[in-house]
Design brief:
The complex is a heterotrimer of chains A (637), B (206) and C (104). Chain A contains 19 helices and 3 strands. By secondary structure, chain A is mostly helical. Among the domains of chain A are: 151 residues; 63 residues, no CATH class; 51 residues. A two-stranded antiparallel ribbon of chain A has the order 2-3. The longest helix of chain A is centred in the N-terminal third of the chain and has 36 residues. The radius of gyration of chain C is 19 Å and the shape is flat. Classes of the chains: A mainly alpha (637), B mainly alpha (206), C mainly alpha (104). Chains in contact: A-B, A-C, B-C. At the A-B interface, helix 5, helix 6, strand 1, helix 17 and helix 19 of A face strand 1, helix 1 and helix 5 of B.
Chain lengths: 637, 206, 104
């Protein structure tokens, strides 16, 4: 469900991007009104980060983590459902701003130039201008009560609050799952890299989300209740917002990339038919990236007036992250070196990841040099950087995972020809769109600005970028068709289509509802590979004679569990709590009215009642209940 | 089959690779994240409390004797909480109910004290949420702490109710009492920090 | 499966004694407030108050929250959040000029 929802938001965010690109293809363009432009870049960023990449990663975590650990489910199934419903309602809440949001001219001071006219000014799509328009980073006091009047940024701040809560709940669930639900013998350093990256990301979320929760509460209080945290005229400090936001915001980007790095660390060894080079190093590098990632946030603030000491310290800290990142890159390359490589679609996307991420990482290193960053910041150079690491990085990684694990989901393979068309179109389109941004930025093209002048000579490359963007869109159509069609026409995969290494491939495809009929006993890293292969004197892998029988036995037992399996019962309470939180949020936005207050009261009551119901409700039926949905064993042979 | 397999005897039951109950582990993780939450709010207060030029500062209006008493009340509620948990682990339902109720009562007294304190500040000294950043910071920090206490009181009364109306708090619910206890103590230690840093140390500067 | 082997809890009497200790520490803190009013101890007052607060913190966490007797894993998780908070917010306060670092 996370997968389909996040993909829907991917498409919405993509449409927002295409509208922006059409507008930017022309100098002095009035394709979009200024207000619509602001809303589109805000919502594009917010959607892609919070409603696409994070939930898509959650989709992978939710599905794969138990499988890779040899477990049946996550540690807290109902909490898991709660995360989903909170996310679902949060996404609806945020997007309902397109319908309900309002945005007016600033309250104070009057008559400054650049004010957006009441009727929107020149351009089309002005109906979009009433959604959040203060940037995905919501800088205060611009996004505060005086400069962002109306409810648009209220939807943003409360919407992000809701979404953050969903992720925080998941992070607790995943950490406990990893620590407590592993199969027998699956020591922490025998877990697949993807499971490790899930753990690291969960810790990142656990510690960074409370910070933005506070920042958003402070901003909400400023907007709704008249507090003066960020109102400079009353002694508030806008820099505080930046510190709090980026304390979260920087770990956030590692939350976005590490899952993809985990996926790539699974795909590359499988299709190089070699173990991952330096497993421990890759794991520790991932943990190091996360830890260091907490120490570099003010590199987003180099031009905001922080002291030279701070700038030097954060610049230096930022450079250090290149070290563990480089370790991972070299280890992936080392895995491929002298391997028997199979370049199917999943592998293409993973290799593409490595290449594109290196490019994005290199531009990132240039940002760590403070005076250089002063030139680059707020220009398209930065936009180019982060799209290389996020698109060429995170998104390529996610697609790699989709092609790789599709058989797990559907029991069939995706079509390779269509997959390769998807890859090459996306690869070409992506580079066409984002490479020119580097030099356009250095030539002075500024971010987040409605128009650029014709004399600046920026138009030609912008047009090329727009063509690239539409190429990406075309590639996605191929993917969508492939995904849908392979469900019925894809080649059946069997249990082990890729001759894979890790434990999640030891159960039948598509995955049974209970995951593992019997929990495996794990004796090494890459335990499935060990069961199929041994090594000759020169260290080459030699297939064991019993390997095919091992696979056949796994298929057999996977479909015929020897003992009754009790699955958790479905519960209404997560749905109700998710709904209640959203109701409260709507109430807070409109709290000055009577019905707004009623919404708050009603929402709070619903939450409390649901908590009590949840607390009393048993997780499973008692063992002697034969409720439907509990699986009974097949007849023993 | 050549490989040993380990049949799952009960479906969901106690799968504990670490030997720590999952719910306990989850609660400790949650509490750990709360340090970041309250840390930001305390930092916010420290920042503005050290800026000059505001018309009024919370430290000028504190009633330390009063707040000391309510801090003591909250501290003692931690005692009643462990006594409640102790009673549940001995399956002494009436005792458990007594101490759970006592904890909730003490927590409510603390909250009443907060309400009284805020009212004094607002009515007597005209120090409101909207007055200046340091006042905003004070109210938001103590307000969120109070909200956490209120949620704790709600959970305690719910446990009391389950014991009273469902007959007993079961072993499974015994873990719930422990978890609520951890939460409650955490809220108490946050107040220990707030009372020292925001009240006592700040008041000494006046 | 191995269930959580419960490490021994303090007895009821011990709980009461701990509470008494906490009450005494609080009383000292409040006394310090009045002493400082009279004697203006300055940084010494701050230091003493912080020490007392840390003591109360450790006692509640260690004995009432039972962390002293639990597996080290829980200790590490809990400490991680605390250390991260102290570290990150310390840097923020330094960057914003509240905590002075040489050269700032």
């Amino acid at each position: 469900m996370y997968g389909y929802a996040s993909f829907l938001f991917f498409l919405l965010g993509g449409i927002e991007a295409l509208l922006l690109r059409v507008h930017l293809a022309q100098a002095n363009s009035e394709f979009l009104t200024a207000g619509a432009y602001n809303a589109l870049f805000t919502m594009h960023g917010t959607t892609m980060i919070f409603l696409f990449v994070m939930p898509a990663s959650a989709a992978f975590f939710n599905y794969l983590l138990p499988l890779q650990l040899g477990a049946r489910d996550v540690a807290f199934p109902r909490l898991n459902a709660l995360s989903w419903w909170v996310f679902f309602f949060g996404g609806i809440f945020l997007y309902s701003s397109f319908i309900f949001g309002t945005s007016f001219a600033p309250m104070t001071p009057d008559g400054i130039t650049g004010n957006i006219p009441i009727n929107g000014g020149p351009g089309a799509f002005n109906f979009l201008a009433d959604s959040p328009n203060g940037g995905w980073f919501g800088y205060q006091p611009n996004a505060g009560p005086f400069y962002s009047t109306g409810t648009a940024m209220d939807y943003w701040s409360m919407g992000l609050q809701i979404l953050g809560l969903a992720s925080l709940i998941s992070s607790i669930n995943f950490i406990v799952t990893v620590f407590n639900m592993r199969a027998k013998g699956m020591r922490l350093l025998r877990m697949p890299v993807f499971a490790w990256m899930t753990t690291v990301v969960a810790f990142l979320m656990l510690f960074s989300l409370p910070i933005i929760a506070v920042a958003l509460f402070l901003a909400t209080f400023d907007r709704q209740f008249g507090s003066v945290f960020f109102q400079a005229s009353n002694g508030g400090d806008p820099i505080l917002w930046q510190h709090l936001f980026w304390l979260f915001g920087h770990p956030e980007v590692y939350i976005l990339i590490l899952p993809a790095m985990g996926i790539v660390s699974e795909v590359i060894p499988t299709f190089s038919r070699k173990p991952l080079f330096g497993y421990s190093a890759v794991v520790f590098a991932g943990a190091a990236i996360a830890f260091l990632g907490f120490g570099v946030w003010a590199h987003h603030m180099f031009s905001s007036g922080i002291s030279p000491v701070a700038q030097a310290a954060f610049g230096l800290a930022t450079m250090t992250i290149a070290v563990p990142t480089g370790i991972k890159i070299f280890n992936w390359l080392g895995t491929m070196w002298l391997g028997k490589i199979r370049f199917n679609t999943a592998m293409l996307f993973s290799v593409g990841f490595v290449a594109m991420f290196v490019i994005g990482g290199l531009s990132g290193v240039t940002h760590s040099i403070v005076p250089s960053d002063w030139q680059q910041t707020d220009t398209y150079y930065i936009v180019g950087h982060f799209h290389y690491v996020l698109f060429g990085g995170a998104i390529f990684g996610l697609f790699s995972g989709l092609y790789y694990w599709y058989p797990k989901l559907r029991g069939r393979l995706m079509n390779e020809r269509l997959g390769k068309i998807h890859f090459w179109l996306m690869f070409i389109g992506m580079n066409m769109t984002f490479a020119p941004m580097h030099w356009l930025g250095l030539q002075g093209m500024v971010r987040r600005t409605w128009k650029y002048p014709a004399e600046a000579g920026l138009e030609t490359w912008n047009q090329i970028e727009t063509i690239g963007a539409f190429t990406i869109a075309l590639s996605i159509l191929f993917f969508m068709y492939n995904w849908w069609r392979s469900k019925t026409h894809g080649e059946p995969s069997g249990l082990d289509p890729w001759d894979a290494r890790t434990v999640e491939w030891m159960i039948p495809n598509p995955t049974p509802e209970y995951n593992f009929a019997v929990s495996p006993v794990v004796e090494s890293l890459d335990d499935f590979w060990r069961r199929k292969y041994t090594e000759d004197e020169e260290g080459r892998a030699v297939r064991r004679p019993e390997a095919d029988q091992v696979i056949a036995d796994l298929e057999e037992i996977g479909h015929n569990p020897p003992a009754p399996i009790h699955l958790p019962n479905p519960s209404y309470f997560p749905f109700l709590v998710g709904l209640a939180i959203t109701i409260i949020s709507y109430g807070i936005i409109y709290h000055t009215s009577a019905w707004g207050k009623a919404l708050i009261v009603g929402g709070v009551l619903l939450t409390l009642i649901s908590f009590i119901g949840w607390g009393i409700e048993p997780l499973e039926d008692e063992p002697d209940d034969a409720a439907p949905g509990n699986l009974q064993p097949a007849e023993a042979h | 089959m050549a490989e040993a397999v380990h049949p799952e005897s009960h479906g969901h039951a106690e799968h504990e690779s670490t030997g720590v109950d999952s719910r306990k582990l989850g609660m400790w993780l949650f509490l750990s994240s709360e340090f970041l939450f309250f840390g930001a709010l305390i930092t916010n207060y420290l920042l503005y409390s050290n800026r000059t030029g505001f018309n009024i500062y919370p430290r000028e209006v504190y009633d330390i004797p009063f707040t000391s008493v309510s801090s003591f009340v909250l501290l003692m509620s931690s005692l009643t909480m462990v006594l409640a948990h102790n009673a549940v682990s001995r399956d002494d339902q009436p005792q458990a109910r007594t101490w759970l109720f006592a904890t909730a009562a003490l927590g409510s007294v603390f909250l009443a004290g907060q309400v009284f304190e805020f009212t004094e500040f607002i009515v007597h000294y005209d120090m409101k949420l909207t007055t200046n950043p340091v006042a905003s910071a004070f109210y938001v920090l103590t307000g969120f702490h109070g909200l956490h206490v209120a949620i704790g009181v709600f959970m305690l009364l719910s446990l009391w109710g389950i014991s009273r109306f469902k007959g007993r708090l079961s072993e499974e619910k015994g873990m719930n009492v422990e978890m609520v206890g951890l939460y409650w103590h955490f809220v108490d230690i946050i107040w220990i920090v707030i009372f020292t840093v925001v009240y006592l140390i700040d008041a000494a500067r006046v | 499966m191995a269930s959580d082997t419960h490490p021994p809890h303090p007895s009821i009497r011990q709980y009461w004694r701990i509470a008494a200790l906490l009450a005494v520490l609080t009383a000292i803190e409040v006394a310090l407030f009045y002493i400082d009013n009279a004697l203006e101890l300055g940084a010494v007052n701050v230091a003493l108050l912080l020490i007392l607060a840390v003591l109360k913190f450790v006692i509640v966490v260690g004995w009432y929250m039972h962390l002293r007797f639990e597996r080290p894993l829980l200790n590490r998780f809990f400490a991680a959040g605390l250390i991260m908070a102290l570290g990150l917010y310390g840097v923020v306060l330094a960057a914003m000029g509240i905590l002075a670092i040489r050269g700032n």
